[in-house]
From TrEMBL:
Native organism taxonomy: Bacteria, Bacillati, Actinomycetota, Actinomycetes, Mycobacteriales
Residues in coiled coil: none
Xref: SUPFAM superfamilies: N-acetylmuramoyl-L-alanine amidase-like (SSF55846), PGBD-like (SSF47090)
Annotated source species: Mycolicibacterium austroafricanum
Top-level taxon of the source organism: Bacteria
A Pfam family: Amidase_2
UniProt xrefs under InterPro entries: Amidase/PGRP_sf, Amidase_domain, Peptidoglycan-bd-like, PGBD-like_sf, PGBDSf
UniProt domain N-acetylmuramoyl-L-alanine amidase: residue ranges: 28-173
Protein name: Peptidoglycan-binding domain-containing protein
Length: 290
């Protein structure tokens, strides 16, 4: 039996209720779409062909009117609810459990922003791994929707599986669909991933008072910086969130990923913007005194 017939107007509530997803909605999402869904049978995961905002998915392109998918997940792991109605994401293709060329009427589409600013192409796809906050958001989003629909991870598909033959699609690049389904199945079983909770991060047993921000007012550390301030930052990150982090005084991609993991933790009070940049608010919660 299909889990749901008609538009998924519950998307925002379901993603918010998960508690781990950094979710926002684009105004008017619940009445946006190219007509109504038939029965929803699963989820199709895509990548955008380069940098692409949620707004661009809403608006579409000169040759293809938006919305282009129901959901957008940015490279920083922010999930945007773009539309509740049918969106033009699947096109022609087929799967054993979807009527031929009818993916748009049976599958919730998720456009995942290509994680790097550089050019995109099959030649470099293996060199550009997906970032952890984005992968976590993809897992959590897919799992939350599957739970709502009472489906298993076998109802996750990708554009390349559906349309590889008919349209030459290869998205999402650098992501094995079987790996993705396996990761989402783990999430459905309650497995926590690094950056989501234990073992990389354990919340303190009692709330730690947040120090006043003013003593951190001068802190600004970001990728590309080097020196003793970065050493202190790495020591704090190593202590509180990524025990394997190498303390070398070089603010590289791993340090940036650790900062983002810290910032995106649901234990942050107040919540932090997961931008990978250590300013006064992040420094205050890290207890980073320079
Ligand atoms: Zn696609």
């Amino acid at each position: 039996m299909p889990g749901w017939t008609g538009d998924p107007t519950w998307l925002l509530d379901v993603l918010k209720a998960d508690g781990q997803i950094n979710v926002r909605a684009l105004g008017g999402w619940d009445s946006r779409g190219h007509g109504d869904f038939k029965d929803i049978r699963g989820i199709m995961v895509h990548h955008t062909g380069g940098p692409a905002s949620a707004e661009s998915i809403r608006d579409g392109r000169p040759d293809l009117r938006g919305p282009l998918s129901q959901l957008h997940i940015s490279r920083d792991g922010v999930v945007s609810v773009v539309a509740a109605g049918v969106s033009w994401h699947a096109g022609t293709g087929s799967l054993p459990w979807i009527p031929a060329n009818m993916g748009n009427w049976h599958l919730i589409g998720i456009e995942c922003e290509w994680p790097y600013r550089g050019g995109i192409g099959e030649h470099n796809q293996r060199d550009e791994p997906w970032r952890r906050p984005q992968i976590l958001a993809i897992r959590n989003t897919c799992a939350a929707i599957l739970r709502k629909l009472a489906f298993g991870a076998d109802r996750i598909t990708t554009h390349k599986e559906y349309a590889g033959r008919s349209q030459g699609k290869w998205d999402p690049g650098n992501m094995d669909p079987n790996w993705l389904r396996d990761e989402i199945a783990k999430d459905l079983r309650g497995v926590k991933f690094p950056g989501e909770g234990t073992p990389d991060y354990t919340p303190p047993p009692t709330p730690v008072p947040v120090p006043p921000v003013d003593q951190y007012a001068g802190v600004l550390l970001y990728r590309g910086m080097r020196g003793p301030a970065v050493v202190k930052l790495q020591q704090r990150l190593k202590a509180v969130i990524v025990s394997q982090l190498v303390v070398d005084g070089d603010f590289g991609p791993k340090t940036e990923a650790a900062v983002r993991a810290f910032q995106s933790s649901k234990y942050r009070r107040p919540p932090l913007v997961a931008d990978g940049i250590v300013g006064p608010a992040t420094a205050a919660q890290l207890g980073l005194v320079l």
